[in-house]
Predict the 3D structure of the following.
Amino acid sequence: MDTIKTLVVDDELGIRVSVSRILQKMTIVIPDHDSEVRFDVEAAETGEEALEKIKASPPEILLLDNKLPGISGIELLEEIAPLNLDMHTVIITAYASIETAVRATKRGAYDLLPKPFTPAELKGTIEKVTRHLILSKRARELADEKRKVRFQFISVLAHELKAPINAIEGYLRIVKDKSAGD
């Protein structure tokens, strides 16, 4: 069973608590990956607190309110962009608009979940993000495996060609030097 570290950042206690409870009880079955996924959930009240937690131990999924006291959600995305984290961010906001969605997406957000949302809407969004996260991990694993297999193939090929090439080189030297006669 895989566990995905998730950070919920919202200044409303009710949102933090309810989202955390929903995710802690939630299990997602990924049939293509033959696994079940659970969530290890942490919460933060401010963007500054979230930034500290992200720098200390980056989550794989970040549920981020846009309107926070101090640093906003969009500003937090700008702060963490240079860190190049493999993290999927869902902006949760009561001020959902196309402009907000575009700004968030340009700064690295994966999705936007407008408030108020139902538990079913939250679960649907988290399931979509989780599937994308798992498939992205699997794609990276396959790419690494492909590189390893290619390297092994080239190593074996070079080793197997060394003996015949050395034999041909030896015969060419004999012909060139005329050491066996004309």
About this structure: Helices lie at 13-25, 47-56, 73-80, 98-106, 119-177. The chain has five helices and six strands. Residues 150 and 156 are 10 Å apart (CA to CA).
